[in-house]
Amino acid sequence: MATIHTTATSAKAWSPDTQAHAPEDVIPDALLIQTATHSGTVEGDAPAVRVTFVTDDDAQFTAEGAEIDVADDELDEVLVYTGKITKLVKVSREQYYQDQTAGRLSTSVARAVTRKANAAYLSQPKPTSPDTTPPAGLLNVTGIKSGDAVATDLDALVDLIATLEGNGATPSHIVLDPVGWASLRKFKTATSEATSLLGAGTNDATRMLLDLPVVVTPSMTANSGLVLDESAIAAAYGSIQVATSDQVYFTSDNIAVRCTWRIGWNLVHPDRIGKFTVTAPA
Q1: N or C: which end of the chain has fewer CB within 10 A?
Q2: Residues 21 and 242: beta-carbon distance below 8 Å
């Protein structure tokens, strides 16, 4: 009887392991994880996560004994398509097995994946039809609200948040670039005053602005910000897949380290997300 080769009976090199890591543990700083609602995961560019939501019809008063009108709630959905972020590292066998090389490579790959995910989440251009992936970054989604420039005081940002709340939002985060955050920190309580509008800066263990946590990231466009409602952002992502092979570069005695992470997002209610710019003080 002919021998049947299986992954259980063959040498390990014929079925190399792939390690799966929970992204919340490996890259907790990824904006998608911090500021969106995880709604599922898929594999492949074609399938989508179908996220259901209800568009509410109004309730009403009805007189005693009268017939109650039937509500016209709309059962709707948004489609979350995903794209795959990848990184492939080629390193000699001798270098790979040096002390600390594997660990530092893993850290470097995690940083690169986080940077790419953050940049895409915020500013990825909208795909051209019939393409559906990578999805458009939040700054490029049609329907989000634009506020006036924030300059000298926070009134424009207060107005933008009020507009979003009027649309049913419960704002959860403010995302800013480092330059924009620095500009806000320079706003003074009054002309010719030296006191910062946001406080003295001695209690910044948690960055807050108008009672909302602030996430500062270099992936945001300079002097720009977003007011987010995490319940209005549907995210799809799975585990981070890391694989190592000493076979693909067999003829050169090199080792391949590959990392992939499939992610996507879409807005359930675009009018509950707002964007603004910050004008640096003179």
Answers
A1: N
A2: yes
The answer to whether position 26 is within a domain reads yes
Handedness of CA 30, 108, 237, 17 (dihedral sign): negative
Q: What are 250-267's pLDDT values in tens digits?
A: 899 999 988 899 999 999
Residue 202 lies in a domain: yes
Q: One-letter amino acid identity for 44?
A: G
Q: Which two tokens stand for residue 181?
A: 């955050």
**Pairing assessment for the beta strands 37-40 and 233-237 based on DSSP bridges:** parallel
Residue 190 one-letter amino acid: A
66 in a structural domain = no
- In total, how many domains does the chain have? 1
Residues linked to residue 257 through DSSP beta bridges, in sequence order:
89, 244
| Those residues with Cβ within 8 angstroms of residue 13's Cβ, 6 or more apart along the chain or in another chain | 246, 247
pLDDT in tens, 210-254: 999 999 999 999 999 999 999 999 999 988 888 888 888 989 999
174: left (phi over 0), alpha (psi -120 to 50) or beta: beta
- Angle in degrees, CA 110, 122, 127, rounded to 5: 105
